[in-house]
């Protein structure tokens, strides 16, 4: 049974009013912040065996594997920040698609895209720890409320999928909210 998208996490988040260089309408900033934070907050848990910061060197992962993961994670955020809910939903793991309600997810992504109203954001930094079919990823953006530590991804077949749909958030400037 699908449960509603876990929006109660929003009560635990400081919502910033924007960042220098960010093109966000003041009227739309709360929607963007709420939608983007809801998407980020469902992720960010550390899988068992991860380092304290959720990512680090991947002894068994080669540069091509890390590059493929980075490209997928960036693609997910490009879809989110441009409001492409149905496209962003395809990045969710099969497990998360059974947990996350597609209509609520699409609504949040559309709100994020409408609130952001800017070009895709490339990562400022990206670190991944890959262990077999699982990865823990840390990344930062120019918009720091999207920075994430320990975002979980899982490889299904040959494709990396977002798998942080039911874990508490961890953001560099907010500490762990458990």
Descriptive overview:
The protein has about 180 residues and is of the alpha+beta class. It has one domain (about 30-175): Roll (Nuclear Transport Factor 2, Chain: A), CATH 3.10.450. The chain has five helices and six strands, in the order H-H-H-H-H-E-E-E-E-E-E. The strands form two sheets. The protein has a four-stranded antiparallel β-sheet with strand order 1-2-3-4, with helices on one face. The protein has a two-stranded antiparallel ribbon with strand order 5-6. It is globular and about 40 Å long. It starts with about 30 loop residues before the first helix and ends with a strand. Residues about 1-35 and about 40-55 have low confidence and may be disordered.
What CATH architecture would you give? Answer: Roll
Q: What's the total number of strands?
A: 6
> In percent terms, what proportion of residues is strand?
15-25%
Structural class computed from helices and strand pairing = alpha+beta
* Rg over C-alpha atoms, rounded to the nearest angstrom: 15 Å
Order of strands, main sheet, comes to 1-2-3-4
Q: What's the assembly state of these chains?
A: single chain
CATH superfamily: NTF2-like, domain 1
Distance between the termini: 24 Å
**Low-confidence regions:** 1-34, 40-54
Average pLDDT over all residues? 72
